[in-house]
Design goal:
- The protein is about 50% helix and about 15% strand.
- It is α/β, with parallel strands linked by helices and about 475 residues long.
- The chain folds into 2 domains: about 240 residues, Glucose-6-phosphate isomerase like protein, domain 1 (Rossmann fold, 3-Layer(aba) Sandwich), CATH 3.40.50; about 170 residues, Rossmann fold.
- Helix 15 packs parallel to helix 19.
- The termini are far apart.
- The relative contact order is 0.15.
- Bound molecules: 5-phosphoarabinonic acid (PA5).
- 5-phosphoarabinonic acid binds next to loops.
Length: about 475
Amino acid sequence: MNTEPKNELCCAEKEALRIRVDYNNMLSDKVGANGISAEELAAVKPRLVAALESANAKRDSMRWRDLYKTMPPILDSILEAAAFVRETAENFVVLGIGGSALGPIAVQQALRHLHHNDLGKAVTGSPRIFVEDNIDPERMAALLDVIDPEKTVFNVITKSGSTSETMAQLLIITRILLDRFGEEGVKDHLIATTDKEKGNLVGIAKRFGLRTFVVPDGVGGRFSELCPVGLLPAAVAGIDIRALLEGAEYMDGLCMNAEPERNPALMLAGLEVLAMENHGANIGVLMPYADSLKYIADWYAQLWAESLGKKKPSENGYLRFGQTPVKSLGVTDQHSQVQLYTDGPYDKTVTFIGVDRFRTEVMIPHAFDEIPGVAFLSGHTLNELINAERVATEHAVTASGHMNKTIMLPVVNEFTLGQLLMLFEMQTAFAGELLGIDAFDQPGVEEGKNATYALLGKPGYEAKLEELRSSAAKDAKYVI
Ligand code: PA5
C-alpha cells in the first residue's frame, strides 16, 4: 500500500470543490408565512456573532475541531496498521456502536464501491468490511457464518471501554480467537481503539499486546470520525485519509468567518434554531439524493439528536431542547415520505443534499420509442433524472410552504466528505451555543447504559437495579 502523502490540492482546486449551501427556501420570501422573515434573520445576527465567539473561546475543549492538526503525526501508524490488515486479511470487522460505528459506516458507504464486499479483494485491494453496531444474536451468528477468523482482523472501538454491547461482542470474538490461536495469536487478529488510559479495553489491549489507537481527549463519540475511530477503517478501505482531513480543515476555515452570511455552519445553525424557536419545526429531515450519502443521514441523526436533545432546569420544571432528526433518501423516499413533507403539518424543515457530478454516468437507452409516455426518458441519463427529481421535490416542498434548504457537493470524494462532516459538526456546536446548552454530553445515553449494567448484574449498580425493580412493579397493572 502506498503510504506516501498525496499532493495537496491547490487553492483553486479547493474552491472548485467547495460545498455550497442554498438557504433561500428557508425564508418567507420563498415559502410564505411559515418561513423565516428578513426581520427575524436580522434580529438573530447578534446571537450568531456571540455563538461564534463563544465556540471559538471554547476551542481548547472542542478537540474534535483540531483533528486535522493533531492527526497528521499518527497517520503513518494508522496507514501501517491498515497496510497490515490489507495484506493479511480477507475480512475487517469493526465492533462498536453509536459514535464508534456510525462515522465508519457513513464514510465507507460514501467513498468505497457501493458493492465493495461483493467485488472481492482482487479488484478492491481491500478486505471485505463489516461494521457490527448491533447485538442482535442472529446478526452475530450470521457474521460468524460468513467470515473465517483465520482470515479476519477485528477492530474493537470504544472510547469508554465499558459499553455493554461492544464489550459483549469483544468477549465473543476474543473467546473464538483464544480457542483458535491461543494467547499469542490474538494480536494478529484484533486492533483496539479506545481512551489512552480509562476503561477496560486499555488493560485488555496490554494483556495481548494489541496494536492500539487512542481516541483523543475532548473528542466525544459522535465527533470522532476524523480520529482513529474512522481513519483506520477508512484507510483499510483504501480511502485517502489525508484528503478527508484536508476537507475538514478547509471547512473549519470557512466556519471561522465572522460574517454569518459567509459562514455556512453558523448560518445553518441559526436557521434551524429560528425554525425551532419561532416556527415549531420540531423535526429536521435530512434527505441526501445519493446512495453514497445515505448513511450520512444516520451519522447526522445521532450528532444532532444526542447533542441538542437536552433539558435545563427552569422555574416550572425543565426547559427542553432538541429537534427530532429524520433520515430520508432521495429519490426512494419521495415515494414514501414526501407526501407528508408537502401536505403534512408545518412542524419540520427539510435539508436536501445534492451532488453535481456523480462518479459514473448511466445512460437511459432507447427501446420503446413508439410509446411517448416512456420514450421521453430515453437519451437522458440517470444522473439527469435523479437531479431533476431533487429539484422537482425542492419545488414541491417550497410550493407547499415548508422550509427547506440544499447542500450541494460538487462530487463525492474525500475532500468534499471531510467538508461535510466538519460542516455538520460545526453546525451542531453552533446550535448548542445558540440554545445555551452543553452539546457535548449525553446524560440520557449514560442512564440507559447504567440501567443495562444493573439488569445484567454489574457490580456497583445494585441501587439502580432496585430502582428498576420498583418501577417495574408499579407498572404491572397496565400490562395486558
Ligand atoms: O456519542 C457518544 O458519545 C455515544 O454515542 C458513544 O459513541 C456510544 O455510546 C458508544 O460509546 P463508546 O465508544 O464509549 O463505546
